[in-house]
Design brief:
mainly beta, Jelly Rolls, binds zinc ion, about 190 residues, 6-stranded antiparallel β-sheet, about 10% helix, binds 6-O-phosphono-alpha-D-mannopyranose, single chain, 3-stranded antiparallel β-sheet
Length: about 190
């Protein structure tokens, strides 16, 4: 594929979309099997209407080598068994960095390199830096949608199996109006 030509990409209404727009991905509760600590609560949420937990709207920049794709992720507010709604989380098979820019709401960026776990608070105007080799998961810790812009190398890829095998080091739980980070437990 030849490189794209230069073009402008704009934030749409409510910072929810990118224009022009490429793919839209919707992840429902049923797509998040094995990720929440409380499997019963997860099964119940799937049975109770299988809500959309997050969406990912991408610009038309493709995920290919040398290009720099972007996407806006919106995680809706909620918790399952006390664990805040979150993305699946992934490693980059080709270890490369990524940035997340907070746009709306209150979120957290959980990072795990297999040994060390880190938590970054992400609010509008904050950039979270994801170094090469760190798995990453986003969490909505507020009561409104949490949105962030991601920018990442097109050849980085997405490895979801790594998180199922290694876990993410910590879990983010709702606790009396605040966030409690607890040890992950057995993945
Ligand atoms: C961000 C980026 C995307 C990712 C999305 C959802 O927008 O990191 O590459 O796909 O978040 O996260 P996940 O792939 O873990 O479901
Ligand atoms: Zn990534």
């Amino acid at each position: 594929t030849p490189p794209l030509q230069p073009f402008a990409i704009r934030f749409g209404d409510d910072n929810a979309t990118l224009e022009p727009q490429g793919q839209i991905l919707q992840r429902r509760m049923s797509d998040l099997e094995g990720l929440f600590a409380d499997r019963r609560a997860w099964e119940q949420a799937v049975a109770d209407g299988d809500p959309v937990v997050y969406t990912v709207v991408s610009s038309p920049v493709p995920e290919v080598s040398r290009e720099l794709p972007q996407s806006i992720t919106t995680i809706f507010p909620g918790d399952t068994g006390g664990e805040f709604w979150m993305t699946k989380g992934h490693q980059h098979p080709d270890p490369q960095g990524e940035i997340y820019l907070g746009l709306e709401g209150r979120g957290g960026l959980l990072l795990f390199d297999g040994e060390r776990a880190e938590w970054l608070d992400i609010t509008p105007g904050v950039i979270g830096y994801i170094p090469p080799g760190w798995a990453h998961r986003s969490v909505n810790v507020g009561d409104e949608p949490y949105r962030f812009l991601a920018v990442y190398p097109g050849s980085a890829g997405h490895d979801y199996g790594w998180v199922l095998t290694h876990g993410m080091g910590l879990r983010a739980r709702r606790a009396e109006g605040t966030v409690e980070l607890v040890p992950f437990g057995t993945p």
